[in-house]
Design goal:
It is built from six helices and nine strands. The protein has about 180 residues and is an alpha/beta fold. It has one domain. The strands form two sheets. The protein has a six-stranded mixed β-sheet, sandwiched between helices.
């Protein structure tokens, strides 16, 4: 029932879901371009509507009280963003402990324009041994997808340059286009 409701709501908002759930038990799905909090809503509705259970990192402070229960139910993983190493280790631990985790991450790391994307997803994927998908939400075409799988190497910097180049060739539009930088 929830799946159908999410699909209906996504379509009512004018969006088209492009791809099915990733076939692996564990994977990371990048979410680009991340220019608005609405990106979370669209990607959550999309992944639930195609039968997936999305997970994402959320500031640990939000998990206090009854909101914490709800955020966990919706796939939130509490993280301490003040310490990058601690954050990565907690996400790696969480992914290793759960039998099935499709983790959504924004490599930009913020909704503001940035030229240098964060490579934490690369570290997590290599440590957990899971694939990475080039997910997107294109506000210009209102299409949302988990995207294609990208093969990672041991060189995070080179992989990031290649990933940003691929995204640049996709000509995606963010909700706030001025906040999206691909190179």
């Amino acid at each position: 029932m929830w799946r159908k409701f999410c699909g209906w709501l996504l379509r009512a908002m004018g969006w088209t879901a492009v791809d099915p759930v990733a076939p692996e038990d564990k994977c990371i799905i990048l979410g680009v371009p991340h220019t608005s909090i609405w990106d979370f809503v669209i990607s959550y509705l999309y992944y639930e509507s195609v039968g997936g259970k999305p997970y994402c990192m959320i500031k640990g402070e939000f998990f206090k009280g009854p909101l914490g229960w709800l955020l966990r139910k919706l796939g939130g993983i509490p993280v301490d963003r003040k310490n990058a190493t601690t954050m990565l280790l907690s996400v790696i631990k969480e992914m290793k402990e759960k039998p099935c985790v499709h983790l959504a991450l924004a490599p930009e790391g913020t909704r503001q324009p940035v030229k240098r994307w964060k490579t934490g997803f690369h570290t997590i994927a290599r440590e957990v041994g899971c694939p990475v998908y080039l997910g997107y939400f294109d506000w210009g075409t209102k299409r949302v997808s988990r995207g294609e799988k990208v093969e990672l190497t041991d060189d995070a910097k080179a992989d990031m340059a290649r990933i940003q180049q691929i995204y640049g060739q996709m000509h995606l539009t963010g909700k706030h286009p001025e906040k999206y930088v691909t190179h």
